[in-house]
Design a protein that fits this description.
Blueprint lengths: L7 H9 L5 H19 L2 E4 L1 H16 L10 E5 L26 H8 L3 E6 L33 H8 L5 E6 L5 H7 L2 E4 L19 E6 L2 H11 L29 E5 L9 H16 L3 E5 L7 H16 L18 H12 L2 H13 L5 H22 L5 E5 L15 H5 L6 H6 L3 E9 L2 E9 L4 H13 L13
Parallel strand pairs: 2-3, 2-4, 7-8, 7-9
Antiparallel strand pairs: 1-3, 4-6, 5-6, 5-10, 9-11, 10-11
Helix pairs in contact: 2-3, 7-15, 9-11, 9-12
Amino acid sequence: MDLHEQSISDLSAGLHAGELSSVELTQHMLQRIKAHDGKLNSFISVTEEQALAQARAADERIAAAEAGPLTGIPIAHKDIFCTQGVRTSCGSRMLAGFVSPYDATVVTRLRQAGAVMLGKTNMDEFAMGSSNETSHFGPVHNPWDTGTVPGGSSGGSASAVAARLCVAATGTDTGGSIRQPAALTGITGLKPTYGRCSRWGMIAFASSLDQAGPMTRSAADAALMLTGMAGFDERDSTSSPRPVDDYAAALGNDVRGLRIGIVSEFMGEGLDAGVAASVESAIAELRKLGAELVDISLPNASLSVPAYYVVAPAECSSNLARFDGVRYGHRCAEPKNLEDLYKRSRSEGFGPEVQRRIMIGTYVLSAGYYDAYYLKAQKVRQLIADDFCKAFESCDLIVSPTAPGTAFRLGEKADDPVSMYLQDIYTIAVNLAGLPGISIPAPLSGGMPVGLQLIGNYFDEARLLNVAHQLQLVTDWHQQAPTVSV
């Protein structure tokens, strides 16, 4: 089997047995990036020299028997995570020249675990988008069909993992930005419980929603990545002090008797027929494994999209206020006065989608509209969370489609923001409630990937990963590769 087709566990075993070196593996991946990324645009920055230096250090750790399962494994980071000495752009002209003086906590933890950083992946500008078409550095292409989108905002990470340009990658999920691109590119993407992974050094979009997570080809690989990423961080006030589970150790548990809820509201109107058939096939496999399927209802789920597009823009307008041309970010040339400096710096630095969300967010927070929009959206958010709590009284996990369709054509929804926003209709409620969710591959539909979403109760990532892993043991959907990886 080619190196780029092997799992983290297989590669780690080979590294520890001396069958290959991290330098050899890293060079192999760098060569694949050079050969294939011209068709995908999944990377913004490739850090070849740094990657090879980290690989040499990893080989030394392995030789000294001081290595773990991630030591020497080549990964990529979404370009929203600060990386010391490397550009961190958030896919925006506003930060196109920003070189971070420090590492994000997630980056630090994975580096300490011995992972090798190949570079920084492309993304929707400031993580705002569902197709990876809003990036200042151009759109990312889906390796299954380069005329289609990979999903967003973590589309660069998804495309790179799907095309086997890296073994795994980090992503962030604010309303589905790990799970939706994972579904559209045929990989595994996990959004952990809010607070499970530190947000320190992860440039904020919507602070009460953003969460870092792993993007891999399998649930087993995701378990290893999450173990390296998760944990309490005193620099992040939203970080949970709850101990990190041994996610890999939990992968062998039986799923017989597990109650899995099917959301009636997610299986009807708006769901593509081919996607529905694929999801039903995956659910049938869960039944064969001995899971008990129960019907549940999330009556306020239909309100998740409008609630999200009040809460998220409100937080975005506050978080992005710092980028004013004075303290942070792009600065316009020869400003006439302070007002001109602000206006032109922000207009030149931010793209149309970011500007749209800033304007919406500023509006809903303004005097006279706060109660009518923002406060009401927060009340709806609580109702959505309550629905999940009630559902978990009758089931252990929840299953649903990840996205309503397969990957759409580049430019198809660019002029229809509402249609674009609806691509996250099955994922947004999970973020509003702060729950963990994972997308894993289901059977292809029309030759394109489909995602099956599993949703767990708070801090139940171990069970989520185990059920996903058990399903992947008896199916090969996660092993199917796009043609660009050949």
